[in-house]
Amino acid sequence: MTDLWYDETGEGSPILLIHEGVVDSRLWDPVVPLLAPRHRVFRYDQRGFGRSPAQDGPYSLVEDLTSVLDAAGVDQAALVGASRGGGIALGTALERPERVSALVIVASALPGQPLNVEWTPEQIARWELAEESNDYAEMAQLDMEIWAPLGVDEALRTMFVENAKGSNSEHETTDGPVADRLAEIAVPTLVVSGARDQDAINENCERIAREIPGAQRAVVEEADHVLPWRAPEELADLILRFLKS
Fold first, then answer.
1. Pairing status of strand 13-18 against strand 39-44
2. What pairing do the DSSP bridges indicate for beta strands 189-194 and 6-9?
3. Burial 120-129, CB ≥16 within 10 A → b, else e
4. What is the CATH number of the domain that holds 229?
5. Within a domain: residue 134?
6. How far apart are CA 61 and CA 91, in angstroms?
7. For position 98, what pLDDT does the model report?
8. Most Cβ neighbours (<10 Å): which of 71, 84, 121, 170?
9. Which residues contact 212 (CB under 8 A, 6 or more apart)?
10. What's the predicted TM-score (pTM) here?
């Protein structure tokens, strides 16, 4: 059993979608219907996001992911992880490789490597003030400026605002870094990023694709960090063609 919220749709070989650390699993709303005709598609809300409870004290992101697979009765799945979710997918491929059939790493974090995000001095000052006053609405606004510079619709804005507390809270995790272990990953891997994303994210993706043996690389030109929302058709097509190959 798992106390994390998850759902599933479709039939076929299983895919587990893992969301970014500034939103929740609704990020995949535009993608799920495109994958479900060929696959059994799962998604879940990470601890402290969306409909899943927060955790007091340390916890394992990898164990959370495998608890969802266990609850769904899935022995092995293709993991599609975006941003923080990409780091979780990479960690699972290292720590529980028997549960992973393939990886699609999207605009990924890379645990163990610092992420140098480009903030303006004005944004830094606003962030410091918002932190002092626990102004999560302002934190969400800043997150949108950094991670969704191509703009937000009402649904995406709602996701940022509703998850601002979770995304800006301390998450004590027991999982180790993965940055120096990429060469150990032995499953088929596709690495995707958006050309309009932060340079640091694209650099992460270049490194991941370079160091995982046999990894494939793709760039979606008109997409920023919220790639599943920004370019669902192109991302779904990349996933489906990769998993079919």
1. parallel
2. unpaired
3. eeeeeebbee
4. 3.40.50.1820
5. no
6. 8
7. 98
8. 84
9. 103, 182, 183, 185, 189, 191
10. 0.96
In a domain, 87, yes or no: yes
SS3 state at 219 = strand
Q: Look at residue 170 in the predicted model and tell me its pLDDT.
A: 82
| Residue recorded with tokens 């979606």 | 220
Domain coverage including residue 183: 6-114+170-244
Please give the helix or strand (H or E) that residue 227 lies within, else none: helix 227-230
What's the first-to-final CA gap in the chain, in angstroms? 33
Quote the CA–CA distance of 125 and 120 in Å, as a whole number: 9
The alpha carbon dihedral of 161, 162, 163, 166 has a sign of positive
Alpha helices (runs of H) in 40-150, residue ranges in sequence order: 61-72, 84-95, 121-132, 136-147
10-residue averages of pLDDT along the chain (245 residues): 94 98 97 98 97 94 98 98 98 98 97 91 94 93 96 97 89 94 98 97 97 98 97 98 91
Cα gap 67→75, rounded to integer Å: 11
Q: Does residue 130 form part of some domain?
A: no
pLDDT score at 2: 87
The span from the CA of 141 to the CA of 202, in Å, is 23
The pLDDT value given to residue 169: 82
pLDDT of residue 124: 94
Q: What is the pLDDT of residue 28?
A: 98
